[in-house]
Amino acid sequence: MALCRRRPRAALERIIASQFELLKQTRATPSPSPLIGAPELIGGPRAGRPPRRLESTVAEKLPRFAGGVAGNPTMDFPGGKVTFTPKMSFISESPEERAHCYRVLDEDGQPLAHSSFIQVSEQVAVRMYNEMVTLQTMDNIFYEAQRQGRISFYVTSIGEEAINIASAAALTFDDIVFPQYREPGVLLWRGFTLQEFANQCFGNKADYGKGRQMPIHYGSNKLNYFTVSSTIATQIPHAVGAAYSLKMDKKDACVVTYFGDGGSSEGDFHAAINFAAVREAPVIFICRNNGWAISTPTSDQFRSDGIVVRGPAYGVRSIRVDGNDALAVYGSVRAAREMAIGEQRPILIEALTYRAGHHSTSDDSTKYRPANEIEWWRTARDPVSRLRKWIESNGWWSEEAESELRSNVRKQLLHAIQVAERVEKPPISDLFTDVYDMPPSNLLEQEMLLRETIKRYPQDYPGDVPV
Q1: pLDDT, tens only, 406-430
Q2: Catalytic, out of 152, 230, 403, 407
Q3: Distance CA 102, CA 104 (A)
Q4: Is 114 assigned a catalytic role?
Q5: What are the DSSP calls for 410-449, one per residue?
Q6: Which of 150, 304, 317, 364 is most buried per CB count within 10 Å?
């Protein structure tokens, strides 16, 4: 019975007064100083409007109705204060103007007029360019190796080198990465060697996955890079969970997860971004909107203004960036990292780009898009060439350095492939290990049957795999 008694009127009035006082103080609190030169994010601080988060209210402690704007009453729902209006008005399915795209460099590699961006040192800029050229060269050589039948499969990052390298440069090694399958440049930046890439693609005994994964499914515990999984978007909720654990442990780090526009059409994305918003997890969502989910164009995936507008719908600060502009990507990710860790919040970055290669070696994209369109993006909008023009204009690069870099990278890659081909394959027994401490009877039976089958039909199994 005591729980059902009404609160005395005086006590209720004090609670109401304290709640309104708290609301006034919150609105008067100045926004945190943004990173100097950082791009403006959707849902972020703007002039005259401090950043806010919609927080739940305790209904029993607040008045049911209160005065609203221009005489319209308001109501405190559990999700926050709402103002009523006598006018029936539907929210438009699309804004009159598309969300702007943050850019620093034009197509000729020159900074835009009045552009504000986070300065990049000569050392970082030149290294970024070196790694972008290395990634581009690695893609070309491994792609040809697959066409020669030396590896079974490959996925390139052609046209998306800036998203790979520039985002990696803006992070620290303590930040945890949950990739899709088009981010090998992040591993490259963190120190994964060309030999390690080759070992994985050839599935030899030196491969950390012991040959169990398809080529390009890289992973490195040492470099905080979770192993690639082919299933689309499953890494996104995993990333949020990892970010929430960093938050609970009060770590000075964040989690970054990459996915494509196709991944944003999966339910995993929506569940993950909502989870991150509600739990205020320090995670950066980087969507590589390259226009195509294999052969499905974005026009057949969604009617919204891309992916960036989904952030505010879930209460997540967001930005759209030119994914072919290395400086814009670098600045956006660095600013996002500062906010994710400093304010303990998720950030969504939509990087607009174009998949200038086929989806994979199993795909021929000329069957569903014009070949001249692909070639135009590979040449006129190449992110590697754009960054080169900028560092050359600063006097940080030369034609001699270019020739030496490309020649050395090619030699190193060809040598790594030759070494990887000669390394012994993992034994058959590795197929059945690393899951159970003691293998169950069904696995033991499967291993026995496999060995008997290989012995009976040796001509149908590769001779270089130790039995």
Answers
A1: 999 999 999 999 999 999 999 999 9
A2: 230
A3: 7
A4: no
A5: HHHHHHHHHHHHHSPPPPGGGGG-SS-SS--HHHHHHHHH
A6: 317
SS3 400: helix
Query: What single letter denotes the amino acid at residue 203?
Result: G
Q: Which two tokens stand for residue 265?
A: 């059409």
Out of 157, 167, 318, 360, the active site residue is 360
Q: Element (H or E) spanning 247, and its range? A: helix 235-248
Write the burial class of residue 203 (CB in 10 Å: 0-12 exposed, 13-18 middle, 19+ buried): buried
Rounded Cα–Cα distance for residues 128 and 188 (Å): 11
Q: For this structure, is 56 an active site residue? A: no
How far is residue 183 from each of residues 14, 295, 308, measured CA to CA in Å?
A: 56, 20, 20
Give me the sign of the Cα torsion angle 241, 246, 250, 253.
Answer: negative
Q: Which residues contact 406 (CB under 8 A, 6 or more apart)?
A: 133, 137
230 among known catalytic residues: yes
Indicate the average pLDDT of the chain.
89
In the set 13, 144, 445, 452, the catalytic residue is: 144
Residues in the chain: 467
